[in-house]
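Hey everyone, long-time lurker, first post.

I ran two proteins through the pipeline my lab uses and got sequence/structure pairs for each. Pasting them in order. The first:
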Amino acid sequence: MVTETLPAAVSTRRSRTLLFLLYFLFGSLAEGCQGIVLLWLVYDLSHNAFLVSVMVMLGYLPAAVIGLLFKRIADRGRADRIARSTNLTLACTSTVLGVQQLAAGHAVALVLTVIGVVQVVLSLAKMLNKAALNRLIRLAFADQDAAQLLKTSSSVSLIGQVAGAGLAGLVLTQGWIAAGLLCAAVAYAASAGSLALGTRGAEAAECAARDGAGVGDYRDEGDGRLAAGTAVRVAGGAEPERAVRGGAVGKIRWSSALVSVLVFSVPSSGALQFIAILLVPLSRQVAPDQPSYYAILGIVAIGGSITASLLLSANLVTAGQVMGWALPATAALALLLATLPSRYPAGLLSFLITVTITAHVICMQVLTNQLPRPQEIGQFAVARNVVASLAKASFSLAAGTLIEVFGLSTASVVLAGVLAAFWIGWLLFGQSLRAPAVGTA
C-alpha cells in the first residue's frame, strides 16, 4: 500500500511527467536530425528516389514481420527495462553511423550497406520501444493524465523534430555528416537517461496508485507482471478489471472499433511517409545546389505537424472532425502539389498536408492507447505498429517507384486517389469510432 501524502504524490507525478516529456524531446530531436541526414545522404550518393524508398522501407518492414511473432509476448517483461534498452540501442546505432562516416564516408557501396543494416536494427528497436512505452504510460498515469501526456508529447516531439531538422540543415550546409549523426547518438542517449530517471524507484503499477487511480493496491512480480488477482484500471473511468491470474496474457478481444483503428491507421501513416519520400527529389527539383532546402522543407512540414497537435490539444478541432475530413483535405492538397511544383507553393503545401495528415495520425495514436483493455495494450500497440509499418513500407516503396518511373506529379495524383478511396471507406464503414469519448483525442 502506498502511503505518500497528496503533495508528495503530486510532486512525483509532475517530475515523472517532465522526465517523460524530456524523453520524447531528445528522442524526436535525434530522429529528426538523423532521418533528414540519412535520406539526403542516400539520395546524394545514388540520385535514385527508389533507393531512398528502399532504405525507408527497411526502417519499417522488419518491425512489421517480427511484430507478428512478437505480439503475443508484448505485455510481458519489465516495460521500463525494455524501453531503456531499446533507446540505448538507438544511441549505439547512431554512433556506428557517425564513426562509419568518419572512417569511410566516400565508399558509396559501404555507406549504403551500413545504412540499410542500421535501418533494420532501428526498425526492431523502435517496435519494442513503442510497445513498452505504451505500457509504461498507461500504467504510470491515470487515464486522463495519460491522454493529456500523449497529446502534450506530440507537441514536444514535434518541437524536438524541428530542432533536429534545423541541426540537420546546418550539418548538410557545412558538410558535417558525421557530426550530425554523432549528435543524434548523444540525443538518443539523453532520451534513454531521461526515461531511466522517470521510472527510477517506482514500478509502473505502483505509479498508477500514486496518481490516485483509486483502484486498489498494485504489486509487481519482478518481471513486469501484476500479481494474481490485483486490480487494474480500464479506460474511460469504468470499473476495474481483474488481472489475468498469474500474469498470463490473454488474446485481444477484437471489436469493430479496434479493427477500425488498424484499418484507418493505414492511410495517414502511409501518406506521411509518402510525402517524406517525395520531399527529397522535390527539394532537388525546385532548389538544385541547395542541400539546406530539403531541411527547410522538413522544418516547414514539422511546423504543420506542431500546428495539428496544438489544434487538437486546445480542442479547436475534435477527433470526429479530423477523422471525417483529414483524408479528403490531404487528397485535395496532394492534387495541388502535383500542379504547383515550385519553391514557395511546395513549402506552403507541405505545411498544410502535414497539418491534416498528422492530426489523423495523432487521433489514431490516442485511440491505440485508450481503447484496448489494460492487459491488451502492448499486444494492440504491436498490432497497430505492424499495420502502420506495413503501410509506411508499402507507401514508401510506391512513392519511390512512381517518382522514378512517372515523376513527381503522377506520384502526387496517385496519393490523392488512394486517400480518397480510404475516405469513402470511412464514410461507409468507420462509424464505430465516432464515440463521444474520442473527441478529446
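...and the second, right after it:
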Amino acid sequence: MRIFLLLILVSFLFSCVENDMPEDLTAQKVKELSLYKFHGDRIKNDELITEWNEMINDSETPDLFKAGTFNIKKIKIADSDTFVYALVATNTGENIQTAALLTKYKDGYKISNRSVSCYGCKVQLELSSKEGYWSCNGNNTSCVKTSRLHMDNNIISNPDARILFRIQLDQTPTDNTETTRRTIYSIYTAASNKGELCRTKSLLSDIAYEETWVINDKNDPKQTSQRPKIREVDAQNVLEIICDAGNESVFFSIDLNKFGAEHKEFKAFFD
C-alpha cells in the first residue's frame, strides 16, 4: 500500500513539473504570452514591436531593422530529447530576421539578452548551436549576420554591499551671515557609487533620513556644527534628489558592513 501511494505521489509531482512548461509553445499565439525583457521588465502586448526594436536595434543603425511579424520556433537540442524555444521576428518590408531565446520566467517568458539578426537571409535555427549563436542560411554576399549581447545595467556589482549613500546640500549664506544651514540626505543601498545607484535604483529600505545641520561660523575652518534635527523621509524622493543633483553637490558613502556600529542613529537600516 505504501509503495502504491508513493507511486501516485511521484506521478503527481512529475505532472506538476510538466505543466510548468507547455508541451508545444509554438501552438500558442505570441500576443497571448506574458513576455519580459532580459532584465525582467514586463512587455505590454500592444508594445511588443516597439520594445523589440529598442532591444534589438544597433546603436549605429537604429532605423535599419523594424520587426513586423513574430512567431515562435521550437529548437531541438543536439544529442538530447529536449527542446528550447526562440522568438523570431521578421521584417515585412525587407528580408531581415532576428531571433532570441525564450526562457520560463514568472508567469511567462523572458527574452534573452543575446540575439542574432540575418540581413538578406533567414536565421538557421535548425543547425546545432549553443546559447543562441545561430547562423544564417544564405551563402551569397548579400547575407549578413549580426550577433548582439546586451549587458544588463540593472545588475549590482556587489549585491552583498550595505552602503549608506549620502548627499550634502549647503544653503548659500549672504555675506553678512555667519551661520549657515546644511542638509544631508542618506539612503540605504547596495550600490557603491552614484552612477550605479541611479542606474539600478537599488534601495534596501523605503525609508531615508534628512539631517539638518547648523554651522555656527561659515568661515571657521573646523566648521563647528550642531544637528538639531533628523527625521525619516521617503527614500524614493531622496533617490530623485541624488540623481538630479549636479557636480556641485557633495556625495559620500559609508560601508555599513565595516562602520555600521558608528551610525546606529539610522535605526531603519538596522532592523
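Reply from user beta_strand_b:
Welcome! Quick read of the second one: Residues 119 and 223 are 65 Å apart (CA to CA). Residues 2-20, 58-62 have pLDDT under 50 and may be disordered.
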